[in-house]
Amino acid sequence: DINPETKQKILDVIREYNYVPNNSARNLKRADSNTIAVVIKEISNSYWGVMLHVLEREVRDRKYCLVLQNVADDEDEVELALQLEKEKKVKGIIFLGGMYNYDESRLRMLRVPYVISGSGKTVPEDTGTYPKSALVTTDTEIESQSMVDYLCSCGHKRIAFITSGDEGLGRCHLNGYKRSLEKNGLEYDEKLIIRLKPGKRIYTIENGYNCTCELLKSGVDFSCIYAISDTLAVGACRAVIDSGKRVPEDYCVAGADGQDIAEYYHPSITTLKYPRVEIALQSVRTLFDLINRKKVVKRQILGGTLIERESTRKL
Question: N or C end of the chain: which has fewer CB within 10 A?
Fold first, then answer.
């Protein structure tokens, strides 16, 4: 309903001054915005790099903007998501990493669609006509059990375990570790469990190195180290070699994630390769289906692949 002459004057001014709309100002006037939020636990973990690249590309291709929200170790990702919903007026949220079991009552406070990706087993039941949430992940407990099963099949009876703690993914991995020991008739020994201290950066080569040095100095008997991250496994290998021992001749080492560093380190590291690209693709596609009120699969569990390399051997 604008006069063509007035419209042309406006377009001329836009060209003259290279005007670009201020999305923040526009969003203040709108009920929502074309923005997707990714709430990510420990953004410094290199594991997320491939997934973030896929998410950013898929969101951009749909003419949306992506907002990253890092979650510190002592922060609640659901609380941050609720703040993002109010402040950024996001259309949808992807939770990347973080808790294993979320508080369903807190999740129900979110009014926008969301997908829990990469971890978690909790997805509230939908009470409305259209679904609002979904889960796209791997079953970390089962994958961890499969790795320990493999190590047991190689003849290992004393498997040291480097984990992030007793909550979240660390607990999932530990449960799988315990289940495998029970399945293979082996006793659980708390002395073989190395729990990383909470901090800003957990899954680092340095942490894997320091933990393994402490383990070697402790005198605890073991033949293999299983770390829940490939970066931790690289640090473990370095510590074994620096102690004058060899991998895998004296100690075997296995990791999890399927990061590039595991393949190109020497010796190359046996690992659990998670389908990161597929998880990211399914997560973003599922989120947009939720936004567009389409039917979705509420729980998508994608399996990992155990890749045997030079860092392990049969005893």
Answer: N
- Residue-wise pLDDT for 80-105, tens only, equals 999 999 888 899 999 997 666 778 88
Q: Is residue 200 within 8 Å of residue 231, measured between CB atoms?
A: no
Query: Dihedral angle at the C-alpha atoms of 258, 259, 262, 265, nearest 10 degrees?
Result: 160
Largest CA distance in the chain: 85
Mean pLDDT of 208-231: 96
Is pTM beyond 0.70? Reply is yes
H or E stretch at 235? helix 230-242
pLDDT of 28 strictly over 60 = no
CB 194 within 8 A of CB 161: yes
Report the number of secondary-structure helices (H) and strands (E) in the chain: 11, 12
Query: With left for phi above 0 and alpha for psi between -120 and 50, is residue 140 left, alpha or beta?
Result: alpha
Q: Which residue has the higher pLDDT, 246 or 121?
A: 246
**Residue 76: left if φ>0, alpha if ψ -120 to 50, beta else—which one?**
beta
Residue 133 pLDDT = 93
Phi and psi at residue 131, in whole multiples of 5°? -70, 150
Structure tokens at 95: 């939770």
